[in-house]
Amino acid sequence: MTDAQQTAAASPSTTAAQSTGPAPVPLLAPREPMPAVTADDTALGELVAAFTAGSGPVAVDAERASGYRYGQRAYLVQLRRAGAGTALIDPVGCPDLSALGRVLAGTEWVLHAATQDLPCLRDIGMVPTRLFDTELAARLAGFSRVGLGVMVETLLGYALEKGHSAVDWSTRPLPEPWLRYAALDVELLIDLRDALERELGRQGKLDWARQEFAAIVAAPPPEPRKDPWRRTSGMHKVRRRRQIAAVRELWQVRDEIARRRDLSPGKVLPDAAIVAAAQAMPVDVRALAGLPGFGHRMSRRQLMQWLSAVDRARRLPESELPQPGQNSSGPPPPRSWADKDPVAAARLSAARAAVTAHAERLNLPQENLLTPDTVRRLCWEPPAEPTEEAVTRALRRLGAREWQIEQTVPLLAHALATAA
């Protein structure tokens, strides 16, 4: 740990400590008049020209209709740049923003919690080559609460109105108060970026943040999840293989209906209803209708489609029933290590303790210093000789950044050697 980092950890700034101060000033409207929503190709062409002529970083945000619509597509995109002002774009009317993405390709994009918005932005042609993630920056700087509203209050002294964060952004036309809320989300984002950059520089962590941002940009699009039905909430209550098959059949029917109707799957049938039906394995419509989630509002036709899914699971031969748990290429759950490999369990305990203690000294979350999955994989299959050079090679293979390697290799090499 460098002298600057030791000083920052020992004497955190008042901002990093989030001390109390004057009451924040409510931010009720953007500095400039509210922009019209860009919803056709002509308006989009004018916006592209304006942002091409702008200067400096560009603040970017996107609003989705999570919990209302199927998938995670963007229903509003907000931008702000010096010299161009704020823009609100309707991706329903303008589904291809690749022209805008190209003119901003060499510009630093400023997002809050970038990994949440980048997939839906990528789908409409907007992919950054450089970014600054204000949420991740706040975590590295040691802030315990890193939501956009809290950070704007803490570092800039303004209070953002957050009452529309969970609304249905697929609504058309979008109400004026929602649009104002969306515009304010990018109003101070670049100011917040500058304040966090200064704080990270003061703590000696700015290069760490830059490595993290570069890793986000370089990461490939996530692959589709294998057996996504296994993530049904409450799945742990389903024990028998035939019941697990019923969860799979019900989930797949629900997903097809949700996709066809463009609805959030939970609005078609709650996870709790899927689990209840799988546990009960009802044999007729009456028995199904008596279960939670299949009440009197559901028509007989709807009940029959769910019952048919349960019946398909009931008729499957034993050889086609899914296995409990999810096959994984990684190590087993840590709770089973003591029985499977007590020496590996000892390595994991020592490595976790070392990483956690060092993260506390650096005033940042343990998972940002080194992800728990990386620690688990290293401890489950450690180098034959746990030298610092071997641990360095292992961490690089696992995707750790150079700053993480520099901070953790001595600790991990010692933990692996002493717990062997």
Automatic annotation (TrEMBL):
Pfam families attached to this UniProt entry: DNA_pol_A_exo1, DNA_pol_A_exoN, HRDC
Organism superkingdom: Bacteria
PROSITE patterns membership: HRDC
Gene3D superfamilies tied to this protein: HRDC domain, Ribonuclease H-like superfamily/Ribonuclease H
GO BP, sorted A to Z: nucleobase-containing compound metabolic process
SMART domains linked: 35EXOc, HRDC
Residue spans of biased composition, Low complexity class: 1-22
Disordered: annotated span: 1-32, 317-340
Coiled coil (residue ranges): none
GO-annotated molecular function: 3'-5' exonuclease activity; nucleic acid binding; nucleotide binding
Domain HRDC: 240-320
UniProt name for this protein: Ribonuclease D
